[in-house]
Amino acid sequence: MTAQMDTEPRTHKEYVVGWVCALPKEQTAATAMLDRRHVGLPKPRNDPNTYTLGSVGNHNVVIACLPKGQIGNNSATNVAAWMVSTFPSIKFGLMVGIGGGIPPKVRLGDVVVSTPLGQFPGVVQWDFGKAKEGGSFERTGSLNNPPTSLLTALTALETEHDLVGSKIPEYLEELRERWPRLVPKYLPSDLQDILFKADYGHASRRALDLDDTCNVDDVDEDEEESCRFCDKTQVVRRKPRDMSVHFGLIASGNQVIKDAAFRNKLNEDLGGHLLCIEMEAAGLMNNFPCIIIRGICDYADSHKNKDWQEYAAAVAAAFAKEFLAFLQPTDIEGERPVKEILGQVLNAVSQSGANIKKISSHLEQKEELEILNWITPINYGPQQSDFLGRRQRGTGQWLLESTQFEIWKAIKNQTMFCPGIPGAGKTIISSIVVDHLDQEFQADPAIGIAYVYCNFKRQDDQKINDLLEGLLKQLAGRCQPLPNSVKELYKYHKARGTRPSAEEISNVLLIVAATFSKLFIIVDALDECQASDRLHFVSELFNLQTRHSANIFATSRFISEIMDQFKDVLSLEIRATDEDVGMYLESHMGQLRPCVLENRQLQEEIKTTISDAVDGMFLLAQIYLGFLDDKLTANDIRTSLKSFRKQDRGSSEDEKTEILSHAYDQVMERIDQQRPGLRQLAVKVLSWIIYAKRPLSIQELQYALAIKEGKFQFDEGDLPHIEDMVSVCLGLITIDDESTIIRLVHHTTQEYFARTRQDWFSTAHTEIAKSCVTCLSFDVFEAGCCPTDGSLLARLRTTVLYGYAAKNWGYHARYSLSLDDALILDLLQNTFKT
């Protein structure tokens, strides 16, 4: 037996109740509760809603559901607005569906109905408010109370429950008889109400033991989200009881909550009166007089899953039916149609809406960009572009096609750790992973992706605050609009001229992370981060994973401390495969002499010999290829190939580091053998890059090299050419195209010079200090302060190094061996220049 269908159409004006659902399963439950179904009615062409029409008791009801895949307050507002426009006689609404319950009072399968409590209306928008002194957060979302006529009817219905009980069980039995196809999903007999302790996070599927029989397709993500692997000793023991209906406070926001600690803090902030958390009600309460009805399907903690959702939707719909059956048409006769209430406002908005929207959008974008840059000026995007641009097409595919990576990408709450020897190409692999995820999920705003590139030269930018801020900036930037939690953090500290603590950043990061259905975090070169900050950062990453099932991908060298932190996770060593090295060498053969380009056999010898010699070190392949670029005959090439040290497969990291060090020795010997002018330029370039207090842009280094001792005017004729600066260093330096930073080619290059720089550049600090003091002594500064913006810009164009020199000349002078005191005294005694 199903609901009877009335074939005689009614008019739009005969429908007085608007029933809004967020999910298809909620709409199914709502439709199943109708006493009678009505044939459809035409709607305006621009109305995007789809309506189900019917009746419950003496009320004609319109049911509409949010578009598939869209949830939250804004979507609910749009659905309700079109519904009221198309059905002009609607007097009130019901928002019916599922939500998260607040233990211990509320249990799974219970129903929560929004009713005012004290200073609060029935629904509070939890993510709208203002930060207060001391770090607290005052919620200022002011939502309208439901109509008095509905509240009066609810009070009478609550009394009826006390006297004779609810009719929900009766309506569920009717559903069982009338819609038998729904019974297995909506009325299952094997549901278990399990509440875990608030401080116990969800335990996902343990890291797989990967063998030949393991296949990513065998992994069931629904099983992964269940609590099969959770520790049952952490379950809160409670006495069984029947389903209950609760009347009181519901918190609504635009973010999914899967955090018991956050749930409990929210309840505490609301005086301990909170019963339910959901995502759509706040979008209706101000403009659509309604009651919110929620069936409880989870506890808003990390153990959140879908087991109870259909049953919760059914009990919520059953209560809605009970309420409508209890409510008499005379109870709402005095209520004005919603469209009439909103008419004047809608007219005013329609007249100026287009202009306001355009101006508002521009201001919001500007404000959001300001907030994101306030979080941190650090932007990893240019590094991602640079690293990806260095990828040889087709390389790294072996990792993307590995079983470990497929499992990591497919299943939530997974960690993949990829250690590798120095120079194996770990950073390029990380950029490939970031690009792969971006390409696959760029059209899905529900997927969060953030990444960090640690760098040995940027320790000042890698404190724990910097690292967390980098993740927060990226994830918040993917949200439209910017989350209120981020805006409030900005407003609070901006007003006081302060910066947020690591704890504050972490808390907001957890809130923002909750907005994504899936979250990927990629961290490259953990070994290049200072140990104390690294330990704290990894702890924060795992906390994010515990709270929101984030997927973490990390690379590092084989450092025992780091290896210990990533035990029992998916793991795959990064090493340049022979195929990848071969592709790189093939694409770069063009830089060699004609004796190679015209001899295919010799090209194969080069690829085979270098691939065997480097044993997984991409960097070494680049160096060895560079050794061949000045060889003019095939025999010269073969002689050099014989000199390459062939490694034993599986040699230790220390042994491979020693091989790299020997290769760097050979490069420096080649630099030393260049003609005097080229050698001098290489020494100056390397001295600045190695000894500079911070990374330099290519323009800064150009201008530094153009400064001549005893010459106190800038002369463009002294600027060296960028290509010459790079080529004379024979592969030891590189330019990041996006950031324009000129740097050593690899972390191991920095390590090599940390050990040997005094041998190669014994007077570097002295020469750099002289250049800095000379820059600060330029005649142009005799004129004093610039009177106009134009004159300031003109001066800055000829004193590009001024910022670095003014801040760091003392540092270099302190370590100088033989700096001319007269030069420094002249600068310090000149009041215009100091």
From TrEMBL:
<protein>
    <recommendedName>
        <fullName>Nucleoside phosphorylase domain-containing protein</fullName>
    </recommendedName>
</protein>
<dbReference type="GO" id="GO:0003824">
    <property type="term" value="F:catalytic activity"/>
</dbReference>
<feature type="domain" description="Nephrocystin 3-like N-terminal">
    <location>
        <begin position="394"/>
        <end position="557"/>
    </location>
</feature>
<dbReference type="Pfam" id="PF22939">
    <property type="entry name" value="WHD_GPIID"/>
</dbReference>
<feature type="domain" description="GPI inositol-deacylase winged helix">
    <location>
        <begin position="678"/>
        <end position="754"/>
    </location>
</feature>
<dbReference type="InterPro" id="IPR056884">
    <property type="entry name" value="NPHP3-like_N"/>
</dbReference>
<dbReference type="GO" id="GO:0009116">
    <property type="term" value="P:nucleoside metabolic process"/>
</dbReference>
<keyword id="KW-0677">Repeat</keyword>
<dbReference type="Pfam" id="PF24883">
    <property type="entry name" value="NPHP3_N"/>
</dbReference>
<dbReference type="InterPro" id="IPR054471">
    <property type="entry name" value="GPIID_WHD"/>
</dbReference>
<dbReference type="InterPro" id="IPR053137">
    <property type="entry name" value="NLR-like"/>
</dbReference>
<dbReference type="InterPro" id="IPR027417">
    <property type="entry name" value="P-loop_NTPase"/>
</dbReference>
<dbReference type="InterPro" id="IPR035994">
    <property type="entry name" value="Nucleoside_phosphorylase_sf"/>
</dbReference>
